[in-house]
Write a structure and sequence with these properties.
Helix 1 packs across helix 2, helix 4 packs antiparallel against helix 10 and helix 7 crosses helix 10. With 323 residues, the protein is an alpha/beta fold. The chain is 48% helix and 14% strand. It has two domains: 274 residues, Rossmann fold (3-Layer(aba) Sandwich); 47 residues, Wheat Germ Agglutinin (Isolectin 2), domain 1 (2-Layer Sandwich), CATH 3.30.60.140. A five-stranded parallel beta sheet has the order 3-2-1-4-5, with helices on both faces. The longest helix is centred in the last third of the chain and has 29 residues.
Length: 323
């Protein structure tokens, strides 16, 4: 396909992506979905596939494992929260196929095995989560989404050995990472967000330590979580060098990674993800909330597939999404 003929489908694909962009917004710099900088950064990766007439590969490190904190989630297996996000991503890929017939192939690169020991999630819970995610894709009949994990990189290897090999071959320099965080900007924001999640996930039943100690440990482990996540990203870049790189985290304008929301109404849900929350139906519309907030709001638990799935709120209830 000529460069001229490739322009229209590339722009159409970009329009669909930009409509769900998760952007790290500078309050002093107005931004909208026509931002030329953001579009141009992604254009080259999309155009090379469009010119070749092949499906656009997209990588999304996400869906690691459920939080170990029962105040946030229903259990250690995927539930309706994950199903809603997968359905949204599948619909987005189907829309891409409408404007560009070869479509897009989204590879969800589950990173639970990468850092679950740091988040204190057992390896067997990660395995069960990954298997049930495969079942979710089967139930939904997804055509454009596949799963990939550290288990696929190092088949037959013990989980701890997988993590050691990943770190030895692809990890960033931790001193440089710490310096980047100290310099402020997006790196500091990510570090603070990961620290907060680690602190919240550490407040599990039976926790007897002090908040001060847990906060200090969370700050230390946050660097390791970020470092391993970067190592996973570096490995994926080697395996899929031409793929469009997606992220669940908001990204700066024009960044090589494209931040993307996981549902249509994500603006209501702020930083919540399916693995840190529960799905809640509120007057026919689903949102994410922390488990304890859904219960406090009077939500009624719904069972599906023989286990807890989501909550339904009383009609008059309009809680804050994060509780």
């Amino acid at each position: 396909m000529s460069a001229h003929r490739a322009t229209a489908p590339v722009d159409a694909v970009l329009d669909l992506m930009m409509a769900h962009q998760r952007l790290l917004i500078d309050p002093d710099s107005p931004h909208d979905d026509r931002c030329a900088h953001c579009r141009d950064t992604q254009r080259g990766r999309i155009e090379v596939h469009v010119r070749a007439g092949r499906a656009i590969p997209m990588l999304l490190p996400a869906f690691p494992a459920k939080s170990p904190n029962p105040d946030k989630v229903l259990g250690h297996l995927p539930d309706l929260a994950e199903e809603l996000s997968i359905a949204f991503l599948e619909t987005l890929c189907a829309r891409i196929r409408e404007v560009y017939p070869p479509g897009a192939q989204l590879i969800i690169c589950s990173d639970g095995r990468v850092f679950n020991d740091l988040v204190r999630i057992p390896d067997e819970h990660v395995s069960a989560y990954q298997q049930e995610m495969a079942n979710v894709l089967d139930r939904l009949g997804t055509e454009h989404i596949s799963l990939y994990s550290l288990d696929d990189v190092y088949p037959g290897t013990e989980p701890e050995r997988m993590r050691q090999k990943l770190w030895a071959d692809h990890a960033p320099d931790l001193d440089e990472l710490r310096a980047e965080v100290r310099a402020g900007g997006p790196a500091l924001g990510l570090y603070r967000g990961i620290t907060r999640f680690l602190f919240e996930d550490g407040k599990v039943p039976g926790f007897r330590g002090s908040n001060t100690t847990l906060q200090r440990e969370s700050r230390t482990r946050a660097y390791e979580v970020i470092g391993r996540s970067q190592a996973w990203g570096n490995l994926l870049a080697v395996i899929h060098p031409d793929a469009v790189r997606l992220s669940i985290h908001p990204q700066p304008c024009g960044h090589e990674k494209f931040g993307i929301f996981l549902q249509d109404n994500a603006d209501d849900d702020r930083w919540l993800t399916p693995w840190h929350a529960v799905a809640v139906e509120d007057r026919g519309r689903f949102r994410l909330m922390k488990h304890h907030a859904a219960k406090t709001a009077g939500g009624q638990l719904v069972l599906r597939h023989g286990r807890p799935s989501h909550y339904v709120l009383p009609a008059q209830t309009t809680p804050h999404p994060e509780g």
